[in-house]
Amino acid sequence: MNDYILTLSCPDRTGIVHNVSGWLLEQNGNIVEAQQFGDAATNRFFLRIQFSLPEKQDVNALQTSFAPIAEKFSMDANIYDAQRKARLLILVSRQGHCLNDLLFRAHSGQLPVEIAAVASNHTDHAGLASSYGIPFHHLPVTPETRPQQEQQIIDLARDLKIDLVVLARYMQILSTNLCQSLSGRAINIHHSFLPSFKGARPYHQAHARGVKIIGATAHYVTADLDEGPIIEQDVEHVTHSVSPAELTQIGSDVESLVLARAVRAHVEHRILLNDQRTVVFR
């Protein structure tokens, strides 16, 4: 297969689809899947097209060929090789349910990614990573060593040519420097239905408020804690009889599912940023 994915966003105006379709015709391209969205509030247009070509093409050459159209319409446009698997670095602390889920999905082919490494401030899941043949990096951290430890994460992401860093219940607050270094390529799973119950111990916060639904939110990492653009969410109904420990157990399943969906959407290039929001093509 010689499939590619074109994503773009730009100020909304007439002629965008016409020009994009004309370029695809010039490439002898066949549209496999196409989705678009016009946001009246921001007057921006969003488009994702998966297309096939008769022969394998260099992505950079395709990007160069498309550049005049991107310039004409002031587009943020990117072209990707649909066959290329994204390389992931997973960060985790002591709770391993999200890590376990991602490892299984990748190993079984359910998630089109290559997990290049797992890194943690604890050693709890070294054996789990090893059982899948994934390198494990123990990166302990204290308040005094945080800058050095975060530089190790940055170095790992660079040396391993990481496309996406996944915070799979990594219970450390990232510095502004690390957030900026990973901007647009780091996803966190927060164990509440944001914007409710930000910060620590959200299930205990939810229990104290007597909520009847709990949820999980996957979002891009920013320097503002739990404030990054939201990618995916889901909820589970609960009753007054459920304890904080039971909420945590129920929520772990929701967290795993929501994080896997968000990772899939990112690696399949289905997410486009729309200011502080996201457009997610299904």
Automatic annotation (TrEMBL):
<dbReference type="InterPro" id="IPR036477">
    <property type="entry name" value="Formyl_transf_N_sf"/>
</dbReference>
<dbReference type="InterPro" id="IPR002376">
    <property type="entry name" value="Formyl_transf_N"/>
</dbReference>
<feature type="domain" description="ACT">
    <location>
        <begin position="5"/>
        <end position="87"/>
    </location>
</feature>
<comment type="function">
    <text>Catalyzes the hydrolysis of 10-formyltetrahydrofolate (formyl-FH4) to formate and tetrahydrofolate (FH4).</text>
</comment>
<keyword id="KW-0554">One-carbon metabolism</keyword>
<protein>
    <recommendedName>
        <fullName>Formyltetrahydrofolate deformylase</fullName>
        <ecNumber>3.5.1.10</ecNumber>
    </recommendedName>
</protein>
<dbReference type="InterPro" id="IPR044074">
    <property type="entry name" value="PurU_ACT"/>
</dbReference>
<dbReference type="InterPro" id="IPR045865">
    <property type="entry name" value="ACT-like_dom_sf"/>
</dbReference>
<dbReference type="Pfam" id="PF00551">
    <property type="entry name" value="Formyl_trans_N"/>
</dbReference>
<comment type="similarity">
    <text>Belongs to the PurU family.</text>
</comment>
<dbReference type="InterPro" id="IPR004810">
    <property type="entry name" value="PurU"/>
</dbReference>
<keyword id="KW-0658">Purine biosynthesis</keyword>
<dbReference type="InterPro" id="IPR041729">
    <property type="entry name" value="Formyl-FH4-Hydrolase_C"/>
</dbReference>
<dbReference type="GO" id="GO:0006189">
    <property type="term" value="P:'de novo' IMP biosynthetic process"/>
</dbReference>
<feature type="active site">
    <location>
        <position position="226"/>
    </location>
</feature>
<dbReference type="GO" id="GO:0006730">
    <property type="term" value="P:one-carbon metabolic process"/>
</dbReference>
<dbReference type="InterPro" id="IPR002912">
    <property type="entry name" value="ACT_dom"/>
</dbReference>
<keyword id="KW-0378">Hydrolase</keyword>
<comment type="pathway">
    <text>Purine metabolism; IMP biosynthesis via de novo pathway; formate from 10-formyl-5,6,7,8-tetrahydrofolate: step 1/1.</text>
</comment>
<dbReference type="GO" id="GO:0008864">
    <property type="term" value="F:formyltetrahydrofolate deformylase activity"/>
</dbReference>
